[in-house]
Amino acid sequence: MVVGGGWRTGAERAWRTASCARPPSDKAGWGHEGNPSDRRRSAHGDRAQRLLPGPGRGRGRVGHRGRARRRLRRPPRGDVRPRDGGQAARDGAGPVGRPAAGVPHRRAPARRGHGAAARVHHDGGRQAGARPVGRGDAGRPGSGVLRAGGAADGGRADHRLGRHRPHRPRARDVRGRELRGRPRVHGQRHLRRPVPAGQRGRGRRGRGRPCAGVRRGAVRRDRPVTAPGAEPSVPEPPIPRYGSGALADLPPSVLASLGVPDAVNVLGLPPSPRVCVLLIDGLGWQLLKAHPDEAPFLNAMDGGPITSGFPATTVSSLGSLGTGAPPGAHGLLGVQVAIPGTGRLLNCLRWQDDSVVPEEFQPVPTVYERAAAAGVEVGYVALRQYRGTPLSRATARGARYHAADGLGQLVGRTELALRQGDRSFVTVYHADLDSTGHRYGTASADWRHQLRFMDMLAQQIAAVLPPGAALYVTADHGMVDPTERVDADTVPELRDGVALLGGDARARYVYSEPGAHDDVLAAWTALLGDRAWVVPRDEAVANGWFGPLGPGMPDRVGDVIAVPHADLAIVASEREPWLNRMVGMHGSLVPAEQLVPLLSTSRH
């Protein structure tokens, strides 16, 4: 429909023809309105005292007031409903098939420019109810009325991605009973339009002004409903399955399958002389299962999900994969952790503090050192840029590093490393899926294309496995794309009493100033308690979030820990501008970030 003129549907033209002109004067006023009926507008008072137009007084065409009008023939007194009802009329004479309530009533006229003219007063003899439209009609402030206790039918008019509100309510075609080709008979309340008038119809692409494809907010029916005065429901945090099904249980199980003494095969892996572990950074279990077309080979492999560990970050998971210990034991407890006794934070990815020695900061022996001591050839295949970095020294020491600059080299170096010696253990690490998700999000086409490359990488490595070798594919964490952000640098309540802010956007460590612990805990709980698990450090440690903690490890963790379980990221735009620019994030205890695949295949 073109607003103010132009093309209209047949039903819209029928409505305007049948409804927009005023009836002739009957020279009689209505006491409750105080105006003669020829000047009367829509009656909004007692519906029981309204009448249909009198016999022979049909509606004229739009814009032809005062001229000869077409007459709609009706039987005598056919405009007045008898109290006892009658047969439903379609093209024949007779009263409407619904008894009037109380006394006869008349149809309300329409005025040009009012979208409500296409949908008001179809309530028959009942009291008129509020129209289920979530906003007012064009040119008529206050006419749109919401139903009591809920949103309008179909949600808000602007909840469609990529479009603004329509310029005015658009009435869809009327269907139902008709009278000589005109709109349905007055009183057929159950025959309504299929959607409210303010909603877009099917088959109307491109109508509306382009806008940013971001939903302004959750539609009311998508939000959890909480009774007035009740506390919001907060789910219990799921604890990683340390000792039975966590990423930290994979390395000792691999060592046991290779015959390394004193290694515990927690996962029950079969014996094998050669093992390759492919770690795809950022490949969560739920993401993998949601993209079967992009990863057919991976989805066809045997296996299931295991838990990453807390926090669900690359630093902590590389520590667990390299040591076979949970984060609380190896001490790599997140991207940014406190250096005890210094009042400073250490970024474990960049590791720019030369005073912190990687071998001392992470003191647990690596599984590569244990395997090499048992006579197993150990290799680590990754990009050249990771060779000799502090994080590699902390998590992969004891392995022979094979640098690879592309996917082809990655497969070739892996095959070469697996064929060394009588027994071999090779770890392959690839990070592009994670970096793509951080930059563009897991819902982007870039991420899906990168997943196809990862599926191809796993397939090619499986194709070059030596006889008797086994391939295990896993990941360090999943990923989500949070749309809501709380900036700790701009909210005063989140800065008061805070000495350091560490961790990650989905797993925050808050280090309080002396004597401010209780106030910081109370402030963070008040602001974020319904969207995040906000707990003191002692509670998280006691509940097993990190697994068993080694000596001195609790001091690296914040006094207060805030872990979002909702669609939320806790950023710090001034201190961490690089993190604030990310789309995809991870670190929390929710399944989308905790569950990672453990898939296997072998060559006999």
How would you describe what is shown here?
This protein is α/β, with parallel strands linked by helices. It contains 17 helices and 17 strands. Residues 1-52, 59-69, 74-83, 85-92, 110-168 and 203-226 have low confidence and may be disordered. The strands form five sheets. A seven-stranded mixed beta sheet has the order 4-17-10-3-9-7-8, with helices on both faces. A four-stranded antiparallel beta sheet has the order 12-13-15-14. A two-stranded antiparallel sheet has the order 1-2. It has three domains: 1-142 and 164-198, no CATH class; 247-325 and 364-480 and 593-602, Alkaline Phosphatase, subunit A (3-Layer(aba) Sandwich), CATH 3.40.720.10; 484-590, Gyrase A, domain 2 (2-Layer Sandwich), CATH 3.30.1360.
Give the secondary structure arrangement, pairings included.
Elements: H1 10-19, E1 29-30, E2 35-36, H2 250-257, E3 274-280, H3 285-289, H4 296-300, E4 302-307, H5 314-323, H6 327-330, E5 336-339, E6 344-347, H7 358-361, H8 367-373, E7 377-382, H9 390-395, E8 400-403, H10 407-418, E9 424-430, H11 432-440, H12 445-463, E10 469-474, E11 484-487, H13 492-495, E12 498-504, E13 507-512, H14 517-528, E14 532-536, H15 537-542, E15 560-564, E16 568-571, H16 577-580, H17 591-594, E17 595-602
Helix pairs in contact: 11-12
pLDDT averaged over residues: 77
The rough form would be described as globular
**Tally of separate helices:** 17
Briefly note the CATH topology name of the largest domain.
Answer: Alkaline Phosphatase, subunit A
CATH architecture of the largest domain: 3-Layer(aba) Sandwich
Q: What profile does the largest beta sheet have? A: 7 strands, mixed
The CATH superfamily of the largest domain bears the name Alkaline Phosphatase, subunit A
